[in-house]
Amino acid sequence: MSVIELLADLQAQQDKTAARADELRDRIQHLTAALAKTEARLANLVTTWKVIAELAPASGQPAPPETNTAHQAIVNTFDQHPDQEFRAHEPHERLGMPTDEASVDITRSRLGRLTRQGFLTQPGRGRYQKRT
Predict the structure, then answer these.
(1) CA 97, CA 64: separation in Å to the nearest integer?
(2) Who's near 89: CB < 8 A, 6+ residues apart?
(3) Least CB-packed of 70, 72, 87, 129 within 10 Å?
(4) End-to-end CA gap in the chain
(5) What is the 3-state secondary structure (H, E, C) of 97-116?
(6) Cα–Cα distance between 51 and 73 in angstroms, integer?
(7) Cβ contact 129:86 at 8 Å
(8) Where would one find coiled-coil regions in this protein (predicted)?
């Protein structure tokens, strides 16, 4: 093999390898973009999962539909006794509502929502009072 043939062969290998490197760079760029997009989607799904898990009942059972009647009755209890502190089960006892744990948990959730909305305060752990 002559020097010219050797140089031509080396040039052909160099061109082929450079083309392969360009192809790999393009694939890496495409995969990097796809990875960033997938990671962003994953972050959104994790956040969504966390929010739903916080709102879901602890028992794993689907929450019964919110009834405005029960909600309003609880609010009325606080309106009638603005200076009194209540635990979650006490409005149930006053209103003759079921006092099973699942029902009280729903009320506890409602009381938390009313507290976040500014209608109630929480003067102590597990205690709720009408905001004055």
Answers:
(1) 15
(2) 99, 104, 107
(3) 72
(4) 99
(5) CCCCHHHHHHHHHHHHHHHH
(6) 28
(7) yes
(8) 7-48
Residue 124 burial by Cβ neighbours in a 10 Å radius (0-12, 13-18, 19+) = exposed
- Of 64, 78, 71, the closest CA to residue 113 belongs to 71
pTM above 0.70, yes or no: no
Q: Containing H/E element for 80?
A: helix 68-80
- Extract the tokens encoding 31: 């995969």
Please write the tens of the pLDDT for every residue from 4-19: 999 999 999 999 999 9
Residue linked to tokens 């392969």: 20
Neighbour-count burial of 49, counting CB atoms closer than 10 A to its CB (0-12 exposed, 13-18 middle, 19+ buried): exposed
